[in-house]
Amino acid sequence: MDTYKLYNGVEMPIIGMGTWPLAGENLERLMKEALSIGYRMFDTADNYFNEDAIGNVLNKNSSIRNEIFIMTKISDEKKMNFPWSSIGKYFYKTSPYMKAHSAKDVVNMLVNNSLRKLKTDYVDCLIIHWPYPDYFLDIWEAMIGLYKEGKLRSIGVSNCRERHLEMLKQNFSVLPMVNQICISPLDTKRALVEYCRKENIQLVCYAPLMQIKNRLLVESEIMKTLLHKYRVDLGHILLMWNKAQGIVPIPKSAHVERLKANFNFNSVSMISEDVELLYSLNEDMQYLPESIYCPGI
Ligand SMILES: NC(=O)c1ccc[n+]([C@@H]2O[C@H](COP(=O)([O-])OP(=O)(O)OC[C@H]3O[C@@H](n4cnc5c(N)ncnc54)[C@H](OP(=O)(O)O)[C@@H]3O)[C@@H](O)[C@H]2O)c1
């Protein structure tokens, strides 16, 4: 499988499989299919409640554990049914739990829980799910500690903008190797993409297909031209657009045929003029979890 090299030398596959909201035996079945298709990277999070299922598959494939790249996230255990009105259990100064625990204790506990569920003794990349403003620097410091211990082969962030990354740069010598964000031709985050490129931070694109049915894309003359030119479907165009920028997409599908189609995203390459054409569709459109659930944004 083709890979990108993170700045610490760790290799990350050029495409991964997203796993939210898959879980249980269904996820185990899909992950096995994905492995036989050729996927070697899987994106999960403590608050997807599916690390156990991924761990079961890892356990059965222990002979190829070193070929598999697991990216997981630490989160605040927010009550997902009322995300806008509740603070998380962790990483908020006003949370009763944090009166008795340090951010370092929480990070260690969350990482140990993930390792237990994933049935592995290391994670290939651990990221902070959101830049929790009360404890952002403390969380990062604790993650560096676990990285240096070898429990984490690489560390990164998610949903971070330039100012969050600058904050880490001003305070630490170990910077994120990865930033997992949502971008699409309707929300290109161009300055952030340039910033990460300059700082050697590998971008991972979550929800790369989220706008697949958006009329602004489907009805755009630019998209129609590209669909005709490359003779692929719209999902393929979106994944090619990621690849042409050196960004790792992590599409999720509950259908084996779509897992296969998405994995084939590399069969045609997009030329840079067409990447630019798609940039011209930018609307700074916000994807829901970024704008509503996201602390620290
Ligand atoms: N860091 C973060 O804050 C964050 C936030 C959101 C997501 N994520 C991660 O990113 C992953 C992907 O994001 P996502 O699942 O929200 O969105 P996505 O992967 O962009 O889109 C998933 C949707 O597209 C459909 N789909 C997949 N392949 C398709 C194809 N070839 N043609 C047509 N439709 C297709 C899927 O339906 P079917 O399943 O029915 O095929 C599903 O409805 C998640 O699973 C998660 O791992 C991270």
CATH superfamily: NADP-dependent oxidoreductase domain
CATH topology descriptor: TIM Barrel
Indicate the percent of residues in helices.
40-55%
CATH structural class: Alpha Beta
Distance between the termini: 34 Å
The chain-level mean pLDDT equals 94
Assign the structural class, choosing from mainly alpha, mainly beta, alpha/beta, alpha+beta, or little secondary structure: alpha/beta
Total helical segments: 13
Q: In CATH terms, what is the architecture?
A: Alpha-Beta Barrel
Bound small molecules, by name, code or SMILES, are: NADP nicotinamide-adenine-dinucleotide phosphate
How many DSSP-defined strands?
A: 10
Strand order of the largest sheet: 3-4-5-6-7-8-9-10
Measured by DSSP, the beta-strand proportion falls in 5-15%
Major pleated sheet: 8 strands, parallel
Low-pLDDT stretches: none
Q: Assembly state here? A: single chain
The ordered string of helix (H) and strand (E) elements is EEEHEHEHHEHEHEHEHHHEHHH
- Give the count of structural domains: 1
* General form: globular
Using only CA atoms, what is the Rg?
A: 19 Å
Describe the overall structure.
The chain has 297 residues and is α/β, with parallel strands linked by helices. It has a single domain (3-208, 284-293), classed as TIM Barrel. 42% of the residues lie in helices and 12% in strands. The protein is built from 13 helices and 10 strands. It has helices at residues 24-37, 51-60, 96-100, 103-118, 136-149, 162-171, 190-198, 215-218, 221-230, 234-244, 256-263, 272-279, 288-293, and strands spanning 3-5, 11-13, 17-18, 41-43, 69-74, 125-128, 155-158, 178-181, 202-205, 248-249. The radius of gyration is 19 Å and the shape is globular. The model has no long low-confidence stretch (mean pLDDT 94). Bound molecules: NADP nicotinamide-adenine-dinucleotide phosphate. NADP nicotinamide-adenine-dinucleotide phosphate is lined by residues 18-20, 43, 129, 158-159, 180, 206-210, 212, 235, 250-255, 258, 261-262, 289.
